[in-house]
Design brief:
Length: 504
């Protein structure tokens, strides 16, 4: 491994940056408890920012602000004006991409070049839904000649967005764009590990000129602010990205008020390589898919199935490529991947590496912490072989830089292995046989299947999970269904008196 240069600074750490206000009702307010969340820079293990922490009483205020905006100024704005505000937000995000990216990199340890790209793509998301805001129509249904029946697509209400730490700005944009385009208002709760970047985003929401209370930001802990939002009577819908165990808790709590919920919960995504594929391209993409963002990606291709004749060479080449990934400091432009976002996440990854070895697996590369990076939550990219698809390492989401390569003998077996999982978010497929490509793509149980390609996640393409990877879809125009209620209106056109069933 060729790690980036790293010299521990002898100078004392600078004072943490302070974000001591919540964004509620268009104002910057102190948290009622006075408490602050300490955000750790995972590359230095030092507190780099302190961020106001919301509790249940702050959540009450945020929901009240979102409700009054929903009934008030936001409902009076035309969809075209709503779209204009979103377009302005997208422009401001592009203008401030460097600053937003730096804050996100400090919060979660991703390389600056990744976070910058994510912020720019997040702006595309917002711009796409800016354009959609005035194209959300109901339909007229000719159910009888003497009546007019039509549907309206109305906002659901106050949407609580509960966000994870791996890509806060980008995953927030996936929710904020369509929710606001459809006329909802929002309360955003960033993860406790990465509370700062959505405060920066709130500043841009303010500058864009959204009416007060349309967007509220309440950083806080899952069990406190998150749980309060999910239980709140004033919240109509929860849009969540994170662990399926948390989704389960949210579903139980949301059941009390029959809230609408959409969940995006990660996966154990299969990446199938047939021996007839362009193996060089397949290798490049497999490496990226498994290790980008230090494996902290819901769509990571963490199970790589390779057809037997190509298996051994492919596994060795994947390990060689993985071994050349530059693990380093997030702000260093040469860095390919940074640390894990938290000490807990690194522990989890290391637990799974140990488990993989106990289960009889062999690590072709990695398996430890990079020797040149004594501080920070770094883990080496690790490629496992000699484990079956039934091993825990093959069944459970690690969310770290760990890939498992498994051989298969024919198409039938590849499909069976790929689908033998509780998850179903994405699948990748490499073959030069066009018939097989479509046949296998149709059989993979996942919300998104990519064939001989790269980076299929896009604002125009619906995205979401089968099975335990989630409920509902994000992205594309498809997502607008998740943020609207359909109302059917029937109007009598005939002047005849209605037939009276009680007449005799
Ligand atoms: P998590 O599900 O606890 O955190 C996600 C969000 O949910 C955070 O904002 C958190 O504060 C909130 N939350 C936690 N408990 C809550 C509750 N009872 N009510 C309402 N909100 C609550 O995920 P965690 O523990 O940070 O990560 C654990 C694992 O989850 C990861 O190792 C990974 O496997 C998976 N994960 C998947 C993600 C994805 O993109 N699909 C993102 C983050 C984690
Ligand atoms: Mg942090």
């Amino acid at each position: 491994m060729a790690p980036a240069a790293h010299s521990p600074s002898p100078a004392p750490a600078p004072e943490p940056r302070r974000y001591d206000r919540l964004f509620i009702g268009g104002a910057w307010v102190a948290p009622r408890s006075g408490r602050m969340i300490r955000s750790i820079d995972p590359s230095t293990e030092e507190v780099w920012a302190e961020v106001a922490e919301a509790d249940a009483s702050d959540v009450d205020d945020a929901v009240a602000a979102a409700r009054s905006a929903l009934r008030g100024p936001w409902s009076r704005l035309s969809p075209t004006r709503r779209g204009e505000l979103l377009a302005r937000l997208a422009t401001l995000m592009r203008r401030d991409a460097d600053r937003l990216a730096e804050v996100e990199s400090r919060d979660n340890g991703k390389p600056l070049r990744d976070t910058r790209g994510e912020v720019l793509r997040a702006a595309d998301w917002i711009a796409f839904f800016a354009g959609a805001a005035d194209k959300i129509n109901g339909e007229q249904i000719p159910f009888r000649p003497d009546a007019l029946a039509y549907t309206r697509r109305e906002p659901v209400g106050v949407v609580a967005a509960i966000l994870p730490w791996n890509s806060p700005i980008s995953l927030c944009s996936w929710k904020l764009g369509p929710a606001l385009a459809a006329g909802n208002t929002m309360v955003l709760k960033p993860a406790e590990q990465t509370p700062a970047s959505l405060i920066e985003l709130a500043r841009l929401v303010e500058e864009a000129g959204f009416p007060d209370g349309v967007v509220n930001v309440v950083p806080g802990f899952g069990a406190i602010a998150g749980a309060a939002l999910v239980a709140h009577k004033g919240v109509a819908k929860v849009s969540f990205t994170g662990d399926h165990r948390t989704a389960r808790k949210i579903m139980v709590s949301a059941a009390d008020t029959l809230k609408r919920c959409t969940f995006e919960c990660g996966g154990k995504s299969p990446y199938i390589v047939f021996a007839d594929a362009d193996l060089d391209k397949g290798l490049t993409v497999a490496t990226h898919s498994a290790f980008r963002s230090t494996g902290q990606s819901c769509s990571a291709g963490s199970r790589v199935f390779v057809e037997r004749p190509a298996y051994e060479a492919f596994a060795e080449r994947l390990a060689a490529r993985a071994g050349r990934i530059r693990v380093g400091m997030p702000l260093d432009p040469r860095t390919h991947i940074g640390p894990q976002t938290s000490a807990e996440q690194r522990e989890k990854t290391e637990r799974y590496i140990a488990l993989g070895l106990e289960e009889g697996g062999r690590a072709l590369c990695g398996g430890g912490r990079p020797a040149s990076l004594p501080r920070g939550y770094f883990v080496e990219p690790t490629v496992f072989v000699d484990l079956p698809n039934t091993a825990r390492l093959a069944r459970e989401e690690v969310f770290g830089p760990v890939a498992l390569v498994i051989p298969f003998d024919d198409e039938e077996e590849a499909v069976a292995l790929a689908n033998d999982t509780d998850y179903g978010l994405v699948g990748g497929l490499w073959t030069s046989d066009v018939t097989r490509a479509h046949r296998v793509a149709g059989r993979i149980e996942a919300g998104l299947v990519s064939v001989n390609t790269f980076r299929p996640v896009h604002h125009m393409l619906p995205y979401g999970g089968f099975k335990m990877s989630g409920i509902g879809r994000e992205n594309g125009l498809e997502v607008l269904k998740e943020y609207t209620e359909v109302k059917t209106i029937v109007v009598e056109l005939s002047s005849e008196p209605p037939g009276d069933p009680f007449a005799d």
